[in-house]
Amino acid sequence: MAAFLPACATQADIIYNTFGGGIGYSQLEGATVGSLSAAAPNYMLGEQFFLDPLGPDYYVDSVTIAVLGNAPTVATVSILEDSGADSPSPTALPVASVQIALPLSPFNSFSLVTADFNSGGVFATDGLLLSGTSYWLAVSTDVGSEFAWADTTNSALLAFQGTSVDGGLTWDVYFRGDPINDFPIAAYSVSGTSAVPEPSSSILLAILLFGFTKRIKRLVPQEYN
User: Fold this and answer.
1) Which residues contact 9 (CB under 8 A, 6 or more apart)?
2) Where are the alpha helices (DSSP H) in the chain?
3) Phi and psi at residue 65, in whole multiples of 5°?
4) CA distance 54 to 3
5) Which residues share a beta bridge with 45?
6) pLDDT score recorded for residue 216
7) pLDDT (tens digit, 9 = 90+) per residue, 136-185?
8) What is the pLDDT of residue 183?
9) Half-sphere exposure (CA, 13 Å, Cβ side) for 203?
10) Secondary element (H or E) of residue 48
11) Which of its termini does the chain have fewer beta carbons within 10 Å around, N or C?
12) Under 8 Å between Cβ of 111 and 67
């Protein structure tokens, strides 16, 4: 008789979150991404985040960002490795990258959008984010398009933010709290699925496998001398 093991459901967790209270982001202010002219710098914006050193590794699932603008466009959302010096690595492949449509218009000038890496995303190292490790969330768009990545309303957060005008080869990085280059960080959240099965799921699977093994042994005739 065939035995079927029930699938163990997995729940995505919020790994990192900068949204503040209430709506969570500014509907009026944000950092520019892209440019409307080929003669102007085409800005890529990056935000550093990190995983709890006491938590598990995670497979990244999605990112939610708050955007402002008055015209629809397409954005590329990527998770980049840290260089080890609090800046995005210019040489490593993105951990994950995906393109998303931004539904902006003069009548809908702000929006929350979710980049689902499991829907057409490109992964390196299976999209695995390691516990206690810093990464960068980077957002860019093509020349001729421009929008703003909305500021968070949580002014207490401290983090590194970077801009690149050469596609991520070099970065200018600033730290929030610097009296000269103070800035609000962007509003976003990163979600992922734990790389370590939940204890309840592991126990259930072990019990099912043990019972299945015992059943097979009962069905095998014993040999007697």
Assistant:
1) 201
2) 199-219
3) -125, 155
4) 37
5) 139, 163
6) 39
7) 999 999 989 999 999 999 888 889 999 999 999 999 999 876 666 677 89
8) 76
9) 3
10) strand 44-50
11) C
12) yes
Residue 185 three-state SS:
coil
Q: What is the pTM for the complete model shown?
A: 0.82
Environment class of 162 (CB within 10 Å of its CB; exposed 0-12, middle 13-18, buried 19+): buried
Report, as an integer, the average pLDDT of 40-44: 93
Instruction: Retrieve residue 42's tokens.
Output: 């085409």
What was the pLDDT predicted at 107?
85
**Which residues have C-beta within 8 Å of that of residue 3, sequence separation ≥ 6?**
212, 215
d(CA 94, CA 12): 21
Measured distance CA(195)–CA(211) in Å, rounded: 26
When comparing pLDDT for 186 and 182, which is higher? 186
186 or 92, which is more confident: 186
- CB-based contacts of 111, cutoff 8 Å, min separation 6: 66, 67, 102, 103, 104
Q: Which residue matches tokens 């955007």?
A: 67
What is the greatest pairwise CA distance in the chain? Answer: 90
Contact 179, 173 (CB under 8 A): no
Could you give the C-alpha distances from 60 to 23, 101, 149, 191, 198, in angstroms and in order?
24, 20, 21, 6, 17
Cα 93-117-139 angle, rounded to 5 deg: 65
Cα R_g (the chain), whole angstroms: 22
SS3 of 209, please? helix
- The token duo for 176 is 């929030």
